[in-house]
Every structure is written in C-alpha cells, then in structure tokens.
Amino acid sequence: MSAMLEIADLHVGYGKVEAVRGVSLSLDKGRIVTVIGPNGAGKTTLLGAAMGLLASRGVLRFEGADLHELGVEDRVERGFCLVPERRELFGEMTVGDNLILGAYSRRKDAAFVKSALDGVFDRFPRLAERRRQRADTLSGGERQMLAIGRALMAGPRLLLLDEPSLGLAPLIVRDILRIVATLRDTGVSILLVEQNARAALETADYGYVLETGEIALHGAASDLLNDPRVMATYLGGATE
Amino acid sequence: MTPDIALILTVDGLANGAIYLLAGLGLVLIFSVTRVVFVPFGDIAAFTALTLAAFQMQRVPGTIGLVAVLAAVASLMELGAAVRRRSADGLAQRLFGYGLLPLIPCGLAWLIAARDVPEIVRIPVALGLALPMGPLLDRIAFRPIADASVLVLLIVAIALHFAIAGLGLLFFGPEGFRTTALVDGIFELPGGLVITGQLILMMASAVLLAVLFFLFFERSLIGKALRATAVNRTGARLVGIRPERTGVTAYLIASALAGISGILIGPSTTIYYDSGFLIGLKAFVGAIIGGLVSYPVTALGALFVGVMESFASFFSSAMKEVVVFSLLIPVLLWRSLALAHGGDEEHEELDG
Ligand SMILES: Nc1ncnc2c1ncn2[C@@H]1O[C@H](COP(=O)(O)OP(=O)(O)O)[C@@H](O)[C@H]1O
Ligand SMILES: [Mg+2]
C-alpha cells in the first residue's frame, strides 16, 4: 500500500538560501506523524511547501496525486489542510464566521457544514460560547482552538499542524494535544510539527527529527522517546 | 449666507456626496480585496452616463467598441497564458467568461441603440455594459502583476485611467452630454425648502444600495469570503477561497456601483469622456478618510466631501476643486498620526 503523503528529496529555499534540503518522509493513512526540531530547523518551511504556499523541488504526493500540479485551494478541496504557525485567523470577523468560512471548500453541502459545525462546537465548547465574539478578542489557547476548528470545518483527511503548542500554557498544550489524538478516531491523519518534543512524541506514532533543513533521525515515536541522542538534545536529559 | 441657502447647499452637497459614497464603497471594496486603488472606477461611471446619453439620442454608444476591445485583449491573454502553461485546463471557462459573456450586453446595446425604446430598457442595458469593464481591466492590467507592491499597482491604475480615457475620447468624442432627468417633479418641504425629484432619487438610491451592500457583506457567504480575503489573504487561501475569484466578484460589484453612480449623476452634471477622474478622485478623498478600509467612515467622508464641495462652489466655483483636495492634507496628517498609534494591529496574529 502506498503512503497517504509521500515527500522525497524535497528542497525549499528563500532566494538562494535553502531552508529545507532533501527531506524525505511518509505518512500512512490513520497515523499521527510528528516532525520535531529546534527553532529555525525548517519545519514551517516544510509545511509551507507541502501546502503550496512556497515553491519547492522534489517529490510531493498526496493520495497518489502530484501536489505540484495543484494550487493551495485545490489541495484544501481534496482534504489537505494546514493549521499554520501564525494561525491566520480572520481577526475582525466573528468566531462563527471564521468557522463557517472554514467550510468554504464544502459550501455546496449544507448538511455537511451543519454537522461539521456541531462537531467543532462539541469538541471545543469554548468556541460555542464565543461564537458571536470577534476572533481577535480570543486568548491564545482559544485562538489555537479556533484555528484547528476552522481547519476541521473543511472535513480534512490529512491535517498539517504547525506548532499548536506555541505560546500556550502547559495545561492548555496538554488539552490541545489530547484533542489532536482524538481526531485520529474520526479518520483524520495528522502531520504534527512541534518544538515541544516530548509532548509531540507522546502523541505521535512515528517521528522525524529535523535539524538545519535535513532529517537527522527517524523512528517509532516510542523509540525516539528513549533514544539517548533525542533525550539529550530535545527532552532535557533523562526521562522520569 | 442665509440659513435657507445653507440648507439648499447642504441638500445639494448630500446628493453629490451620495454619488461619492457609492464610488467610495467601490474603491474601498477593491482596495481591501486586491490592494489596487482602482482609479478607473470613475471612468466606468462616466462611460455609463455617456452610454445612456447615446441611447437617448438613438446613437450607437462607443462603450460597445470599448468593451469588445477589452474582451478581445483579455481572451488573447488567456490564450497566451494557456500556451505558456502548456495546459488548456479551465481555458474554455475563462474564454467564456472574459471573451463571450461581455459580448451579451454589447449585442443588446447594439439592438436597442437606434430604436425608440423606453428608459426602463435603456438603463439596465447601459448598466450591463458597465459590468464587464471592471473584471476585464482587472484581467488585463492587474492580474499579471497581482503580487506587486501597492505603489506599483497604484501607478498602473493611474496609467490605466489615462489609457482608457484615451479610448473614451476615441469612442465617445470630445463633446459632453447630459442625460434626461430620470424622474420629474419638484417637492416643497414644510420649511419652504424646494427639492427636486432627481436629488431625492440620488440620495434614496445611495441609502438603499449602502444597506444592500452592508447586508451582503454581513450575511452572505460570498460577502464573508470577500471580507476574509481582505482581512487575511493567506488565511482565506487556506480555507479554499481563491483570491482571483473574489477579485472578480469585487470588480463586478464595483462596476455595478460605478454604473449606477454614472446613471445617477448623468442628469445633473455634464459628462465628458474624461469626467470620471474627478468623480473617482473625490470618492478617493472620502475613502482615504475611511483609511481605505472602513466602509462606514468612507460613507461619512464621501458625504462630507460632497457638502464641502457644494459650499465651496457657492463662494467661488473656480476654487471648488482646490478646497476639496486641500481637505486631503489635514486628513492625511490625521490618518498618519492615527496609524502611528494603532500601527501594531496588523501584527496581531504574530503573538498567537
Ligand atoms: N520568509 C523568509 N525569508 C527568508 N528566510 C526565511 C524565511 N522564513 C524562514 N526563513 C529561514 O528559513 C529557516 C527555517 O525557518 P522555519 O521553517 O521557520 O523554521 P522552524 O519552523 O523550524 O522554526 C530559518 O533559517 C529561517 O531564518
Ligand atoms: Mg516554525
């Protein structure tokens, strides 16, 4: 069986500087795969290229289709969705409008939009309470919930998450990652990019370590959690 | 000046301000969705007034030729783009949209031009000819440089105005025209103020359209998608909203507003092929008061410009444009101060 997402020898640059150099990774349907690495390793660049926001060279396939031939919006229509590091919410619009617009690619299926909205409100009751509030009045954690909720409204088959824990309090990080883990049960596969290595590896099935634009290491998440090199560099020494 | 005269000037100014209001909404709409200051907006308004004037004289309007030329150029550009891409994906649809659809109002205009048909037929056909102009100019001039800076887009917009005003001279000739009044009648208000049906029509249309405009953006999904594109382009693309499509929608709505402005202003002002520039510029002053983002402030700003202009022309008609454009200076100063204080709002997403 071929992988749901296949990336091979991918190169992405800003002008002359290559930020991602020959990265290969694959993700099977129903899996949570994580890419961890320090700040500036090229994680956001990698996701930007996968989503089509940045130009890239190399193999990029989703469910057998060559992603290079599809624009960002076509990828969304195929259930390939990104929750970006910067959230990119519609700040001046209400939480409800942000969510409705999340389903823009599915707008012709009113029944789907309604059930997706109910699903998001079930998952994030806070968003239901604040549905009439402007998105730029939300707290950091609520914004991340809204960003994930908005992506879920598109009925994604593969969700790319760029540092969902960024800038959030540890308790909220745990909440968010617990929700990420439950998404898999609804048939969403996940590519999770994180600096918070321990939390990410505890959530994922498989992990890649990205350093200065290259994959330094990869393996089952449980193996990486016990790998002395990962432990020393990313997990702050010994585990409990 | 007596209070009576002041009242008359105010009413007159509000009526002209109503036109600037519609134009200002169109300018803000296009700027917020595409970052283009659409200087040729006023040209579309002027051409629509000239189209209606031609119908009323039972002549063939030059707009037919203009729209046909634009449609041909846009179609050639689509063909060229398809050859360069080496792919005909979606080409048929785009040729239909840019090449064929605009010819429908051209054909209708051709049919009714030399005939004695009622106004109720002429006005929609004149508006129909206005509709394709915005999207065609977008396709021809702005789509190829969509990622350019706001300044480059502005320079192109100004150049485009001169280019199509030149075409206007070619197609309409140098004479100016007034259309016949859309409504007759003079009303005397309780205070002794006399107001023409034309003025009432201008103001009522502006109010009605502004309300429709507001409802469209607040309630409809397409309106929300337009706002989303304006607020956060990347975010919009990530939910599957295509900026080129929302751009076309914005240009269509703006063309309709331009056409309606032209129809409304035609009976009260003599319109020449190049009259559009001043209409657009005054609406632009209103839009700048709204910071090119706020619809309500733009609406108030446009009304203010209309009233200022009306009073200025009472004291010295030669100085009226000077007064209106001098307004820009304090407004820009105030705007730049406001921006210096609230300038961080654009980075709100950074901190998460
Ligand atoms: N817009 C940009 N222009 C130029 N260089 C960039 C840009 N964005 C990121 N970079 C560089 O690319 C590298 C990878 O950045 P990024 O993908 O954001 O890393 P990460 O998400 O892992 O923190 C860094 O060296 C960064 O400085
Ligand atoms: Mg990053």
Automatic annotation (TrEMBL), chain A:
Domain of life, per UniProt, equals Bacteria
Q: Looking at the Swiss-Prot or TrEMBL record, what is one Pfam family this protein matches?
A: ABC_tran
Q: Tell me the GO molecular function terms.
A: ATP binding; ATP hydrolysis activity; branched-chain amino acid transmembrane transporter activity
For this entry, list what GO says about its biological process: L-amino acid transport
Which PANTHER family does this chain map to?
ABC TRANSPORTER ATP-BINDING PROTEIN (PTHR43820:SF6), HIGH-AFFINITY BRANCHED-CHAIN AMINO ACID TRANSPORT ATP-BINDING PROTEIN LIVF (PTHR43820)
Q: Which family does it belong to?
A: Belongs to the ABC transporter superfamily.
Q: What name does UniProt use for this protein? A: Metal-dependent hydrolase
Taxonomic lineage is: Bacteria, Pseudomonadati, Pseudomonadota, Alphaproteobacteria, Hyphomicrobiales
Automatic annotation (TrEMBL), chain B:
Q: Which InterPro entries would you find in this protein's record?
A: ABC_transp_permease, BCAA_transport_permease
- For the keyword Flavoprotein, the answer is no
A GO MF term? transmembrane transporter activity
Highest taxon in the source lineage: Bacteria
Signal sequence span is none
Query: Keyword set for this entry?
Result: Amino-acid transport, Cell membrane, Membrane, Transmembrane, Transmembrane helix, Transport
Q: Which GO biological process annotations does it have? A: amino acid transport
**GO-annotated cellular components:** plasma membrane
Keyword Nucleotide-binding tagged: no
Q: What CDD domains has UniProt attached to this entry?
A: TM_PBP1_LivH_like
Topology within the bilayer: Multi-pass membrane protein
Q: List where in the cell it is found.
A: Cell membrane
Pfam families registered for this protein in UniProt: BPD_transp_2
TM annotation in the entry: 6-30, 37-57, 63-83, 95-114, 120-138, 150-173, 193-217, 250-273, 279-306, 318-337
Which PANTHER family does this one have? ABC TRANSPORTER PERMEASE PROTEIN, BRANCHED-CHAIN AMINO ACID TRANSPORT SYSTEM PERMEASE PROTEIN LIVH
> What family does this belong to?
Belongs to the binding-protein-dependent transport system permease family. LivHM subfamily.
Q: Any idea what this protein is called?
A: ABC transporter permease
- Its source organism is Prosthecodimorpha hirschii
